[in-house]
Amino acid sequence: MTKQQANWSPYDNNGGSCVAIAGADYCVIAADTRMSTGYNILTRDYSKICKLADKCVMASSGFQADVRALQKVLAARHLIYQHQHNKQMSCPAMGQLLSNTLYYKRFFPYYSFNVLGGLDNEGKGCVFTYDAVGSYERVGYSSQGSGSTLIMPFLDNQLKSPSPLLLPAQDAVTPLSESEAIDLVKTCFASATERDIYTGDKLEIVILNADGIRREYMELRKD
Amino acid sequence: MNLVDSTQVNSTLLSSETASSERTLYPYVTGTSVIGIKYKDGILMAADMGASYGSTLRYKSVERLKPVGKHSLLGASGEISDFQEILRYLDELILYDNMWDDGNSLGPKEVHNYLTRVMYNRRNKFNPLWNSLILGGIKNGQKYLGMVSMIGVHFEDNHVATGFGNHLARPILRDEWNENLSFEDGVKLLEKCMRVLLYRDRSAVNKIQIAKITEEGFTTYPPYALKTFWNFSAFENPTVGAEGSW
């Protein structure tokens, strides 16, 4: 007879989608607030967005327990950085730290899919996109998580970023204004929610610009 | 059983791995769903008192709702022995906190966070505590209700449920729960959920316990049975027309 008992996996997929868009003087980071396991919704109001530094915000989906562990490691490392350098970490520096932190657990990975958004040292919007083991790239916009297969091609179509193969290298930031970018993000999630069962309930949008940090919310389908 | 033997072979090769022969590879005695809700004055929880040994109903008077410190209430489903170990951890935590003698005490938020770290740490060692835990409480007028799973997934909500409760009780709670439930209405709502679970969850038993925690402290009520009705015509002769059945 085959084994007939409960078994366990150290991983789960709690779903969720994340998007970030960089502009000339702003950055928009967004994620839904649904947390699921299998066909169950665990809660409709769990924030996947974490502020890591003054000008640096991370949105993460995947396995919630790993995501929270990762956030705690980054928060602790950033606290040490502040004590040693008496300043906030820049977004590109946090980008490298996140990559190293993920790769450190290369052979028992954090099952988390992240986008990091913020402003670089010139005040320009920047987005870094990752896989679970830490390979990363600076881009103009990106999407991660369960709805990324629906959102990413839509962003490609709307934003038409210059090819990274072009020489000399072209600037990756999008030509949109801040409010246009926010509208685009809302449209992305409204559409992804229609087809992805792991995306929905509520959209949380974080906007970073020269004035500081701002949050907006939009209701999404709850089915 | 083969798994246990092979780890013992390993332990002779790697002497530091001796503890690995004590991993829970699957649960033995398990409790089923627990439900928790916020209500007007605090937190209410309900659980039945059965504990199953596989599919055998082995124990019929197991308390799965326990107070933790002055402000918190813990409900557990899953492996009963692991739950009892968690209670020992918490006893120590509360004792050592008390020994500071500074008038401070751990609230539900702190206890929940501690449980979260314990559960995640054990999954990282591939030696999980086989439980889904619900932690509720109230401190300084702040109500708190959260959940932790075996692998460390955790969240807060106005109402939570483990196991089958997630499928059967939470849809009812989403429909009928509201912030200002009185104690009586809260108990009625929990009973409605527990009754559905009793009818549809084979490991549920008709001996339930309700506990509450308010600013005044922890109260548990004597176990009792829910009224049930089995005389629906569909129940009368369930195998009629089923060829080859008895």
TrEMBL record, chain A:
<dbReference type="GO" id="GO:0051603">
    <property type="term" value="P:proteolysis involved in protein catabolic process"/>
</dbReference>
<comment type="similarity">
    <text>Belongs to the peptidase T1B family.</text>
</comment>
<dbReference type="InterPro" id="IPR023333">
    <property type="entry name" value="Proteasome_suB-type"/>
</dbReference>
<dbReference type="GO" id="GO:0005737">
    <property type="term" value="C:cytoplasm"/>
</dbReference>
<dbReference type="GO" id="GO:0005634">
    <property type="term" value="C:nucleus"/>
</dbReference>
<dbReference type="Pfam" id="PF00227">
    <property type="entry name" value="Proteasome"/>
</dbReference>
<keyword id="KW-0647">Proteasome</keyword>
<comment type="subunit">
    <text>Component of the proteasome complex.</text>
</comment>
<dbReference type="InterPro" id="IPR016050">
    <property type="entry name" value="Proteasome_bsu_CS"/>
</dbReference>
<keyword id="KW-0963">Cytoplasm</keyword>
<dbReference type="InterPro" id="IPR029055">
    <property type="entry name" value="Ntn_hydrolases_N"/>
</dbReference>
<comment type="function">
    <text>Component of the proteasome, a multicatalytic proteinase complex which is characterized by its ability to cleave peptides with Arg, Phe, Tyr, Leu, and Glu adjacent to the leaving group at neutral or slightly basic pH. The proteasome has an ATP-dependent proteolytic activity.</text>
</comment>
<dbReference type="GO" id="GO:0005839">
    <property type="term" value="C:proteasome core complex"/>
</dbReference>
<keyword id="KW-0539">Nucleus</keyword>
<protein>
    <recommendedName>
        <fullName>Proteasome subunit beta</fullName>
    </recommendedName>
</protein>
<dbReference type="InterPro" id="IPR001353">
    <property type="entry name" value="Proteasome_sua/b"/>
</dbReference>
<comment type="function">
    <text>Non-catalytic component of the proteasome, a multicatalytic proteinase complex which is characterized by its ability to cleave peptides with Arg, Phe, Tyr, Leu, and Glu adjacent to the leaving group at neutral or slightly basic pH. The proteasome has an ATP-dependent proteolytic activity.</text>
</comment>
Automatic annotation (TrEMBL), chain B:
<comment type="function">
    <text>Non-catalytic component of the proteasome.</text>
</comment>
<dbReference type="Pfam" id="PF00227">
    <property type="entry name" value="Proteasome"/>
</dbReference>
<dbReference type="GO" id="GO:0005634">
    <property type="term" value="C:nucleus"/>
</dbReference>
<dbReference type="InterPro" id="IPR001353">
    <property type="entry name" value="Proteasome_sua/b"/>
</dbReference>
<dbReference type="InterPro" id="IPR023333">
    <property type="entry name" value="Proteasome_suB-type"/>
</dbReference>
<dbReference type="GO" id="GO:0051603">
    <property type="term" value="P:proteolysis involved in protein catabolic process"/>
</dbReference>
<dbReference type="InterPro" id="IPR016050">
    <property type="entry name" value="Proteasome_bsu_CS"/>
</dbReference>
<dbReference type="InterPro" id="IPR029055">
    <property type="entry name" value="Ntn_hydrolases_N"/>
</dbReference>
<keyword id="KW-0539">Nucleus</keyword>
<dbReference type="InterPro" id="IPR050115">
    <property type="entry name" value="Proteasome_alpha"/>
</dbReference>
<dbReference type="GO" id="GO:0005737">
    <property type="term" value="C:cytoplasm"/>
</dbReference>
<protein>
    <recommendedName>
        <fullName>Proteasome subunit beta</fullName>
    </recommendedName>
</protein>
<dbReference type="InterPro" id="IPR016295">
    <property type="entry name" value="Proteasome_beta4"/>
</dbReference>
<comment type="similarity">
    <text>Belongs to the peptidase T1B family.</text>
</comment>
<keyword id="KW-0963">Cytoplasm</keyword>
<dbReference type="GO" id="GO:0019774">
    <property type="term" value="C:proteasome core complex, beta-subunit complex"/>
</dbReference>
<keyword id="KW-0647">Proteasome</keyword>
